[in-house]
C-alpha cells in the first residue's frame, strides 16, 4: 500500500521494488515514478483488505472515478439492456470515455454501448489495478479521453489457492457469496506455465426499497403556487409530496367523480387533494397516492455469475514465448423497474367490474358516459428484466526479446477475438392492444363478464381484466395481456483485435538511455442479433429492434522517451487512426518530468485524444420505453401537463469522433527528512469538442416549447391530442470542459522506528479529487456545469461532488492486520445555475430556475477489516472480517423529479453517490498451498 507516486507498492514483505512496476501510462518499459502522466495503483493487498463482492465496487471508491454504474443503479435499464452491468467512469466524463484494459489489452464490450462489464475480469488473479488519470489515446487508442483503468493479472502465480467469502446487510437481506479457486503450474523446467481460475458468485436480490429512509415522500416538483410574478420559487424540494393523478386501485381524475378512488370490492374513498400541479401535489392524501408505487424499484438485483479463465504460455526458446488465453463468463441478472403507473385509463359506464363491485359509483354515471383514471396497478406483478450474458474471449500471441544496437529489445504480437451473447428478456410487460381490449369489460350472454370485442368476434381469445380496486386481476387475465412470451432479443457483440508492438533503447543521453516504442493495431467491432417481429412494437416496455452494424479501425503509433539530462525526462507519442465510418484522425501527447533535487519531481503532460462513436451511437435501430414528460401550460401543443409517451432512442451513422485536448501538471514530493512519506498534486484540464451525447426527452420538450428551437419540435410526435413518442438521436455536441485536481499522500512507518518493542508497520494513504468544473455546452440551449451536483434532475453520468476523498489506515503486525477506511464527498447542489429563495424570488427561467432548497449534504462512510494469517494442512491461509458502512449511515434525502413517471418508485436519494444498503458484514477465507 506504500505510495511511490504514481504507483502504490504492495505489502513490503512480498512486493517488488517500485522501479519494477510497469504502469499503463506509457508503452515504454519505465517505472511509474518517472511517468509524466499521473497513475494510481491499487495493490492486491488493498483489494484483499476489503474483500469486495465485485472488484468494481472497490475501484469505484477512488476519488478520480465518477459517473460509474453498478448492477444496482442499472435496475431500470429494461429496454437498453444495461441491467446487471458494473462499469467504470473517470472524471465524470462518462463510462464511454474511460478505456478499460486487461493486461494492457482491450476486452469485448458487454453492451452495445461499448461498456466493459468489470465482472468479467478474474478478480482473484488481479495483482493490481492501475488508473491513469489523463488522456492516453496516443498510447492506447480511442476511448481514453478521461483515462485508462488497467487490470493487471498475476500471470506468474504458482501454487493452488481457494477462497470463500460472503456478505449480508445488517437488515438481514442482500446475502451474497463467492467461491473461487486459482492454480498456477510450471512444467518442463519452467518452460510451460499454466494458469487457471474459476469463480462463482451469487447474490440474493432485494426486490423493493424496504428502508425507513425511503418513506419520507421527499421529491422535487414544480411549485403549484408559482405564477412567475408572486415571488415564489418555481421548484420545491421537500417532504409531504406525492402524485396527484393515481392511486393503487385507481383514481378518477376529472368530472363529477373527480377524487373518487377505488379500494377493495365495494370500497371507495374520496381523495383530499393538496395543491396540485400535474403530476404532483403538496399536502393532501399523499400517503394514499404513493401507496403501491413508492419504493417498488429493486434495491439489490438478483445476480449470479460463473467464470473460467486459463492462460498457457510456453517458452519456445529463452527469448521467445508463445501464449494462449481463454476466458468465459456467464451472468444472469434479474431486477424490477417499478409498479408502473397508468394514466388516462378509460372505464365505460357499462363496465362489468364497475357495476359488479362498485354499483354506487356506476349509479352516478349516465348511460354512454365514461371516466378516465390513473392507477399504479395494484395486484399486477412488477415489470422488470431477466438478462443473461455470455462473454467469450480468446487471445493468442507471441512475445520475446532480441538484441539490436548492443541493447535488449522487447516485442509482442497478439490476436484477440471476443464475443458477448446477450439474451434480453422482459418480465411482467403487457401488450398494449391486449390491455385495451381486456379492460373494456362488459356483461355477456348469461351475465358472464367478457371483453366487448368478444361480442362481435367470439374467437378472439380476449380475457377481461379488472383494473378497478386493489383486489388484483385474475391469473387468466394476466396471462392474456402478457402473452405466451415476453419481449425479448438476442444480440451478439463481436470484437477482433490484431496488434504488434516493439520497444527498446536506442542510444545513451546524458540522463540515460533513449527509448522508443512503435506498433500497429487493427480492430473490428460489430453487432447483430435477432428479434421476433411480434416484439418490435406494441408493448409497454421493450419494443425491441435488431441492432446491426460494424466498423473497422486501422492504427499505427510511435512513442519516444528521452532522458535529456539527469533529472529531466521527455516523453512524446503520436498515433494515426483510420475509421471505416468516419475517416482518419491523429492523436498525440507530449510530457515530461523534471527532478531538480531528490526530494521533488515536477511532471506534466499535454495530449490530443479522441473517442469514436460506439456501436449503439452509430447503429441503434431504436430502443423504446414508456416515460413521461411535462409540457408547460400555455405551450402551443395539442396537450399540456404530465404526458405519457414512448421514448425512442435511435442511432446516428453521421456521427464523427470526439476530439479532446487535455493537459496535466503536478509535482511529487519524497522528502528525505521524512522517510516513507510521499505526496503528489496534479491539476488537469480537459476540453472535448464535438462531444457525443443526447438531448433528453424533457430537454427536447423545453427546447421546443420554452426556448422556441423549432428543430426539436419535429422529434415530438402527437397522434391527435395524444403524445405518441419522442425520438432521441445522439449528436456531436459543441463541447465539454472539465477541470480539477488530485491530491495524494502516503506515509509508511515501521513501528520499530519508534520503539523496538512495537511490532508491525503502520501505513496511511489518502487521496482526494477536487472537481472544479464539468461543463457541457450543447450549442443549442445553455451550458450546464455538473461539478458539485449531488442529485436531482441533473444528476447522472456527468455529475460529481466538488470534493471526493478516501483515506486508508493499515496496520500489519504479522499475523494480524487491521484496515480502516474513511471515504466520502462534500456537500453539493441540485444545479449550479439554480437560484435558492423562498420569497421575493426573481423570475425563473429554463437556465436560472428558482428553488426553495438548493443544498444537498455530503457524506462520510467508514469501513473496517480485521485479518488473521494462519497455517494449516501444509498451507497458509487468511481469515478476514469486514464491515462496510460501519456506523450504518443512512443516505441523505435527495429530491428527485419533477418529470419521469418512475420517480416515486426509485430511491429518495442519489443512489450513485450514497450508500443505500446500510451496514454490510463480510467474511473472507483464503487458503494457499
From TrEMBL:
UniProt membrane topology term: Multi-pass membrane protein
Domain of life: Bacteria
Cell compartments where the protein resides: Cell outer membrane
SUPFAM superfamilies according to UniProt: Porins
Main location: membrane
Family that this chain belongs to: Belongs to the TonB-dependent receptor family.
Protein name (record): TonB-dependent receptor-like protein
Amino acid at each position: 500500500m506504500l505510495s511511490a507516486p504514481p504507483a502504490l507498492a504492495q505489502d513490503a514483505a512480498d512486493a517488488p521494488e517500485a522501479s519494477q512496476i510497469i504502469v499503463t501510462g506509457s508503452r515504454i518499459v519505465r517505472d511509474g515514478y518517472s511517468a509524466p502522466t499521473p497513475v494510481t495503483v491499487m495493490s492486491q493487498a488493498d483489494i484483499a483488505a476489503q474483500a469486495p463482492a465485485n472488484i468494481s465496487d472497490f475501484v469505484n471508491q477512488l476519488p478520480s472515478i465518477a459517473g460509474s454504474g453498478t448492477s444496482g443503479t442499472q435496475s431500470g435499464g429494461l429496454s437498453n439492456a444495461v441491467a446487471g452491468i458494473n462499469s467504470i467512469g473517470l472524471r465524470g466524463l462518462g463510462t464511454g470515455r474511460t478505456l478499460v484494459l486487461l493486461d494492457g489489452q482491450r476486452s469485448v464490450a458487454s453492451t452495445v454501448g461499448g461498456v466493459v462489464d468489470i465482472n468479467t475480469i478474474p478478480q482473484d488473479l488481479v495483482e493490481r489495478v492501475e488508473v491513469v488519470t489523463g488522456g492516453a489515446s496516443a498510447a492506447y487508442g480511442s476511448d481514453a479521453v478521461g483515462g485508462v483503468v488497467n487490470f493487471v493479472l498475476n500471470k506468474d502465480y504458482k501454487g493452488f489457492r481457494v477462497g470463500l467469502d460472503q456478505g449480508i446487510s445488517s437488515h438481514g437481506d442482500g446475502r451474497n457469496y463467492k467461491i473461487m479457486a486459482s492454480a498456477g503450474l510450471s512444467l518442463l523446467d519452467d518452460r510451460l506455465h499454466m494458469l487457471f481460475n474459476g469463480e462463482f458468485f451469487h447474490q440474493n436480490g432485494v426486490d423493493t426499497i424496504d428502508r425507513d429512509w425511503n418513506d419520507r415522500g421527499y421529491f422535487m416538483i414544480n411549485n403549484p403556487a408559482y405564477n412567475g410574478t408572486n415571488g415564489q420559487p418555481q421548484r420545491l424540494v421537500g417532504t409531504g409530496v406525492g402524485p396527484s393523478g393515481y392511486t393503487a386501485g385507481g383514481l378518477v381524475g376529472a368530472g363529477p367523480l373527480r377524487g373518487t378512488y377505488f379500494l377493495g370490492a365495494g370500497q371507495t374513498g374520496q381523495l383530499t387533494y393538496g395543491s396540485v400541479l400535474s403530476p404532483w401535489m403538496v399536502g393532501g392524501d399523499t400517503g394514499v397516492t404513493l401507496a403501491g408505487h413508492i419504493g417498488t424499484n429493486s434495491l439489490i438485483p438478483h445476480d449470479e455469475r460463473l467464470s473460467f479463465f486459463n492462460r498457457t504460455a510456453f517458452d519456445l526458446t529463452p527469448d521467445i514465448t508463445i501464449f494462449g488465453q481463454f476466458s468465459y463468463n456467464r451472468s444472469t441478472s434479474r431486477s424490477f423497474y417499478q409498479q408502473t403507473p397508468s394514466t388516462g385509463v378509460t372505464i365505460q359506464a357499462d363496465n362489468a367490474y364497475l357495476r359488479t363491485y362498485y354499483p354506487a359509483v356506476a349509479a352516478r354515471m349516465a348511460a354512454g358516459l365514461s371516466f378516465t383514471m390513473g392507477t399504479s396497478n395494484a395486484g399486477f406483478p412488477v415489470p422488470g428484466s431477466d438478462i443473461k450474458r455470455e462473454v467469450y474471449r480468446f487471445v493468442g500471441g507471441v512475445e520475446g526479446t532480441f538484441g539490436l544496437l548492443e541493447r535488449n529489445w522487447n516485442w509482442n504480437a497478439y490476436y484477440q477475438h471476443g464475443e458477448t451473447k446477450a439474451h434480453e428478456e422482459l418480465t411482467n410487460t403487457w401488450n398494449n392492444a391486449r390491455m385495451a381490449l381486456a379492460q373494456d369489460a362488459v356483461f355477456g350472454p348469461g351475465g358472464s363478464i367478457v371483453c366487448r370485442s368478444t361480442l362481435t368476434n367470439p374467437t378472439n381469445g380476449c380475457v377481461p381484466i379488472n383494473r378497478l380496486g386493489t383486489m388484483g386481476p385474475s391469473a387468466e387475465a394476466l396471462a392474456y395481456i402478457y402473452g405466451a412470451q415476453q419481449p425479448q432479443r438476442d444480440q451478439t457483440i463481436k470484437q477482433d483485435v490484431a496488434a504488434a508492438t516493439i520497444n527498446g533503447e536506442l542510444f545513451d543521453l546524458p540522463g540515460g538511455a533513449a527509448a522508443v516504442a512503435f506498433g500497429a493495431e487493427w480492430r473490428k467491432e460489430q453487432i447483430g442479433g435477432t428479434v421476433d417481429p411480434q416484439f418490435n412494437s406494441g408493448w409497454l416496455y421493450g419494443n425491441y429492434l435488431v441492432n446491426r452494424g460494424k466498423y473497422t479501425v486501422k492504427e499505427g503509433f510511435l512513442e519516444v522517451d528521452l532522458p535529456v539530462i539527469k533529472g529531466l525526462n521527455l516523453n512524446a507519442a503520436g498515433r494515426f487512426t483510420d475509421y471505416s465510418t468516419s475517416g482518419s484522425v491523429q492523436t498525440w501527447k507530449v510530457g515530461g518530468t523534471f527532478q531538480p533535487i531528490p526530494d521533488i519531481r515536477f511532471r506534466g503532460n499535454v495530449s490530443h485524444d479522441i473517442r469514436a462513436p460506439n456501436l449503439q451511437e452509430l447503429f441503434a435501430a431504436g430502443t423504446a420505453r414508456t416515460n413521461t414528460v411535462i409540457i408547460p401550460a400555455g405551450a402551443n401543443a395539442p396537450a399540456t401537463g404530465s404526458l405519457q409517451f414512448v421514448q425512442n432512442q435511435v442511432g446516428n451513422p453521421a456521427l464523427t469522433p470526439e476530439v479532446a485536448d487535455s493537459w496535466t501538471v503536478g509535482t511529487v514530493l519524497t522528502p528525505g527528512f521524512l522517510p516513507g512519506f510521499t505526496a503528489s498534486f496534479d491539476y488537469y484540464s480537459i476540453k472535448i469538442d464535438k462531444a457525443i451525447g443526447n438531448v433528453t426527452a424533457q430537454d427536447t420538450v423545453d427546447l421546443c416549447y420554452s426556448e422556441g428551437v423549432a428543430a426539436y419540435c419535429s422529434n415530438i410526435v402527437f397522434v391527435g391530442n395524444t403524445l405518441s413518442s419522442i425520438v432521441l438521436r445522439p449528436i456531436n455536441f459543441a463541447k465539454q470542459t472539465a477541470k480539477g485536481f488530485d491530491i495524494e499522500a502516503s506515509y509508511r512507518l515501521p513501528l520499530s522506528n519508534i520503539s523496538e518493542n512495537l511490532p508491525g508497520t503502520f501505513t496511511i494513504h489518502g487521496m482526494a479529487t477536487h472537481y472544479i468544473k464539468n461543463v457541457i455546452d450543447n450549442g443549442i440551449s445553455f451550458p450546464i456545469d455538473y461539478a458539485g451536483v449531488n442529485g436531482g434532475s441533473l444528476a447522472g453520468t456527468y455529475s460529481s461532488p466538488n470534493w471526493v476523498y478516501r483515506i486508508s489506515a493499515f496496520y500489519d503486525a504479522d499475523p494480524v492486520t487491521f484496515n480502516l477506511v474513511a471515504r466520502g464527498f462534500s456537500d453539493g447542489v441540485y444545479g449550479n445555475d439554480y437560484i435558492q429563495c423562498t420569497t421575493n424570488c426573481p423570475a425563473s427561467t429554463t437556465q436560472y430556475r428558482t428553488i426553495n432548497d438548493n443544498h444537498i449534504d455530503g457524506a462520510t462512510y467508514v469501513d473496517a477489516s480485521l485479518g488473521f494469517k494462519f497455517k494449516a494442512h501444509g498451507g497458509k491461509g487468511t481469515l478476514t472480517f469486514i464491515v462496510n458502512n460501519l456506523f450504518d449511515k443512512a443516505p441523505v434525502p435527495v429530491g428527485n423529479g419533477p418529470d419521469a413517471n418512475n420517480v416515486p418508485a426509485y430511491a429518495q436519494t442519489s443512489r450513485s453517490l450514497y450508500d443505500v444498503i446500510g451496514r454490510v458484514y463480510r467474511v473472507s477465507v483464503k487458503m494457499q498451498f
